[in-house]
Amino acid sequence: MTTPRITITPGCYHVGLEPCVIATTLGSCVAVCLHDPIRGIGGMNHFVMPHAPNHRRDDPYFGDAAIGQLVANLEASGSRGPALTAKIFGGANALWPEALSLFAIGHQNIALARQELVRLHIPLVAERVGGQTGITIEMESWSGAIRLRPIGRSR
């Protein structure tokens, strides 16, 4: 029997309560991967922008909502914050490499992910962020292991 592969798109997330491989492709977007090694479950989101406007506070297109919803879904399945570990990926400055990274959306997405994890007391154990190329990542929900493949320069 093969392990199911779940591909998430921008503004989505998935929690693997049963073993699965969760995959996505990132440029300036960021994916936060959370894993509970005690329960052997994990999840991933894929957000596009850092902060949701007031009228879209629950939209996982935005990092602050996406991270909160991913954590809430893991907690609803029995995971607790102290058991979770995090890995973050993406945030490339792929479209305009000459732009100042301070103003690039990828930089803002990375900063938001780090801030939210600190606020939630979830340790960040690995990251591959920034740069000028997109990546495809796959996460094993049961182990938290990540496979990463660069997708080449966008420009």
Features:
four-stranded mixed sheet; 60s Ribosomal Protein L30, Chain: A; alpha+beta; 155 residues
How helical, in percent, are the residues? 10-25%
> How many β-strands, per DSSP?
9
For this structure, the CATH topology is 60s Ribosomal Protein L30, Chain: A
**Total helical elements:** 2
The main sheet orders its strands as 2-5-4-6-7
The biggest beta sheet, please?
A: 5 strands, mixed
Outline the low-pLDDT stretches: none
In total, the number of domains comes to: 1
CATH C-level class: Alpha Beta
Secondary structure class reads alpha+beta
Question: What is the N-to-C order of secondary-structure elements (H for helix, E for strand)?
Answer: EEEEEHEHEEE
Give an account of the 3D structure.
By secondary structure, the protein is α+β, with helices and mostly antiparallel strands. It has one domain: 2-Layer Sandwich (60s Ribosomal Protein L30, Chain: A). The chain contains 2 helices and 9 strands, in the order βββββαβαβββ. It has helices at residues 63-76, 105-119; strands at 5-7, 12-16, 21-26, 30-36, 41-46, 85-90, 124-129, 133-140, 146-153. The strands form 2 sheets. The protein has a 5-stranded mixed sheet, covered by helices on one side. It has a 4-stranded mixed sheet with strand order 1-3-8-9, with no helix packed on it. The chain is globular and about 40 Å long. The model has no long low-confidence stretch (mean pLDDT 91).
